[in-house]
Amino acid sequence: MPQAHESPAPQSPAPYAPVTLGEIKELARVGRPTVSNWRRRFSAEALAAAKDRRPPFPAPIGGSENKPLFDALAIADWLSLRPVPDTEPDESGKIPTYGDRFRQGLRLRRLVTLKHHLGSTETLIAQALATLAMWGEGEDLLPEYLPEELRDDYAAAGPEVRQAVSALRYEIGSLGKAADAILGIDEDLELAKRLESDLVMDTVPREIVALVASLIGPNEGGPGQRSTISLCAGLGELLLGMSGGPTGGLRGHGELVAVEPDPLRRKLLEYRLLSHEMYTDVCASPSDLDTPRWWGGAPGDEPWTFSTADIVLASPPYASGERERDEKGPLWWAQEAVSRLAPAGHAYAVIPTWTLTRMRGAAPAPMVDAREQLIAQGSVEAIVQLPRRIHPFRTGAEYALLVLRPPSPDPADRQVLLIDADRIAQRTDGRKWIGEVAQLVLADGESDPQDARSVPIRSNHPGGEQLLDGRSVLPAHRLAAPEAGVDHFEETVTARRAAMAAMPQLRDWLGDMGIAKRRTPVRHRKLDEHLTAGQLKSLTGHRIKDADVGSAGLPVIGREEMLGELPIGQRRIDPEALGTYSAAKITERGDVFVFAEHGVRCLVDEAGGCVLLSPVQGLRIAAYREHLVALARSEPIRPDALWMRPHALARLLQSPRNQHRGSGSLVRRVSVRDMDLPQLPAEEITELEAILTETERLRADVRRQLEALDRLATRISAGVADGDLALRRR
Predict the structure, then answer these.
(1) Quick one: how many helices (H) and strands (E) in the chain?
(2) Non-local CB neighbours of 431 within 8 Å, separated by 6+ positions
(3) For 570, how many CA atoms within 13 A lie in the half-sphere containing its CB?
(4) 597 phi and psi, to 5 degrees?
(5) Is the CB of residue 83 less than 8 Å from the CB of residue 28?
(6) Quick one: pLDDT at residue 335?
(7) DSSP output for 30-95
């Protein structure tokens, strides 16, 4: 190997240039007032006056009074005494400090400066990684095994780049960690932000990497190392995140292979692996895996293919323009991962959750076909809905992890484990949810039915729950269970007793309620089944221009009305203006308004004649109109005339079992079609409707009383304030 490629001894960094107050703010990632407050409260004079023996804030070493300069290392040492509040300890149990942040910023300070000289962040990153790669395993490779552009990028890296990279390596401690820091992986993402690189936008979040590593288990180099294929490898987050990775002896010579279609990421991944002293083939297409060759630069008697592996990883980059009708999408890569599995292997695919929520329609949908094929062949072992906002950059995208296995010759008896990790994360601290989810997947722990449950691929009896029904398979939409630890009979009796104490005049009515424990189980049916059967009709909300909404005409029901921010009837639309919206429909008496964002809120339309504004939806009980006609004609009404009634429908939809089905990273929405209803006898529905109707009437009376008292208090106080009223005791 040429002498120029030899790795120099790590150099201690040159003294850092002095920093200003603004640079302290930027590098420590705090506000300017915080730095000013530190300097004022912890000055030598203030500490001496308070007899405080803590180290003072470092004094300026130069500059001017308006722009003082401070010694960078002295500032770093002082900030190391100040822990960052509300942060989790690292793996060693150490709480991060502002000094850690400050030093991390200093590490890339030289590289940030060089970026402006080179004019391109990608060029700087490529040259820096090429330098680290040549100092790593690259120097021991024959020229024909070096990545195509490595020598050119290494030669283009001038002395300034090499000096900055050498100093970074010295401070961080290894070539691999230095490469990770430059890419913003396994280090604080603020480093990558300072380089303003778009490469980190699609990196796999650390929590997902940790979860996949926990599921894979130990995979150290040597005879026991399992072969691995990483599809859509990106910058190698999942590949290097496996237990026994760069620090545990993971070998790349013939045991690992990566596929990355993007040329820039493919090149940087090769450089990063070499900096970790791993030589691993990185292909441009999965079809390259079927080409006989000497993989990992280890020639044998004959070349061989790398078509299958014990572990297959896939993390397709999220693209907002993807649709369910695209021929290639995230689930295409999941199918490819399954096809690459060895007989006893496992695959792990990170996908956006929208691929799990699309329902089958009349138009062809390759994405739905791919999902149902994976499920039907028994290849899906578990679906893990990951916590929302898990991605630091794509906060509006939700993700799920598919745990996949080879197709089964008899998949009918297989089940799929659905796990709502978002729900688990909400009740656990920090990253403890990762361990709980891993235990559930590995069958090492018991689950709350609301957190995880196995669902059969196909039902063994008619009407039973199954995944192959064309509906959403997102865990939050599927998982439903009674409230844990709640005795509904005892809670209801207690609530009735409290109502009697608060409203003695209703004692007889409350006492006549027939409440008892149910002895037989109740079957639940999804609203989608009722809608398909025609028992319910869906009314969609409309997008109406603000200019067409006024104070006369038909009432409109939107988000504000459902939240109680505006009274119903204040906003209206003229019938002539409504005529320009051909799809708009007018509600009828008994329709139920549904607002399914951040929970479920329902209202019953007592009069009809309203117009729904998106995102409010409506549900209409198909048989209710005939019921009202029969009432108007004074015809006898049989108790079993209706399977459901409006107030009962509204209240059952708002039950806790439906409330927690929400999904969505920014706006939590509940899928109306995936809500369910208990199948109750018609006489029980009639009794429930009577109780809820009377309850609503009493609540309306109380609201009128409160409004009257509020108005009285307002008028009296306003009259006294203006000096027009005089109050006297009679």
Answers:
(1) 29, 21
(2) 88, 207, 210
(3) 9
(4) -115, 130
(5) no
(6) 94
(7) --HHHHHHHHHHTSHHHHHHTT--SPPPPPP-EE-SSSEEB-HHHHHHHHTTSBPTT----TTSPP
The pLDDT of residue 11 is: 54
Instruction: Tell me the two tokens of residue 546.
Output: 């603000």
- The CA distance from 632 to 477, in Å, is 40
Q: What confidence score (pLDDT) does residue 693 get?
A: 92
- Amino acid type, 303: P
* Residues forming beta bridges with residue 257, ordered by sequence position: 229, 281
Terminal Cα distance for the chain, rounded: 108
Distance CA(59)–CA(69), nearest Å, equals 9
| Whether pLDDT at 201 is above 90 | no
Rounded-to-10 torsion of CA 702, 708, 709, 715 = 160
Helix (H, G, I), strand (E, B) or coil at 157: coil
Helix, strand or coil, per DSSP, at residue 76:
helix
Helix, strand, or coil (residue 182): helix
Q: Is 374 exposed, middle or buried (0-12, 13-18, 19+ CB in 10 A)?
A: buried
- Tell me the pLDDT band of 367, cut-offs 50, 70 and 90: confident
- Burial class from Cβ neighbours inside 10 Å (0-12, 13-18, 19+) for residue 673 reads middle
262 in Cβ contact with 291 (< 8 Å): no
627 C-beta neighbours (distance < 10 Å), count: 16
Residue 481 near residue 420, CB atoms below 8 Å: no
d(CA 130, CA 135): 9
Burial of 302 (0-12, 13-18, 19+ CB in 10 A): exposed
Which residue type, as a one-letter code, is found at position 415? Q
Residue 2 has pLDDT above 50, yes or no: no
User: For residue 89, what are the contacts with CB-CB under 8 A and spacing of at least 6?
Assistant: 95
Mean pLDDT, the chain, as a whole number? 84
Q: How many CA atoms lie within 13 A of 537 on its CB side?
A: 12
Structure tokens at 476: 């939050």
Specify the residue for token string 């109109």.
Answer: 625
| CA 102/CA 76 separation, integer angstroms | 6
Domains in the chain (CATH in brackets) are 21-107 (no CATH), 202-297+304-478 (3.40.50.150), 480-521 (no CATH), 524-692 (3.90.220.20)
Predicted local distance difference test score (pLDDT) of residue 518: 86
**What is the distance between the alpha carbons of residues 367 and 316, in angstroms, rounded to a whole number?**
14
User: Which range (318-332, 394-408, 562-576, 595-609) has the least confidence?
Assistant: 318-332
Predicted model pTM = 0.77
At residue 244, φ and ψ (nearest 5 deg) are 80, 30
Residue-wise pLDDT tens digits, 143-181: 767 788 888 888 888 888 888 888 888 777 788 888 888
Name the one residue in this structure whose structure tokens are 């030589």: 279
Q: How far is CA 494 from CA 350, 487, 497, 498, 501, in A?
A: 47, 11, 5, 6, 11
Q: How confident is the model at residue 362 (pLDDT cuts 50, 70, 90)?
A: low
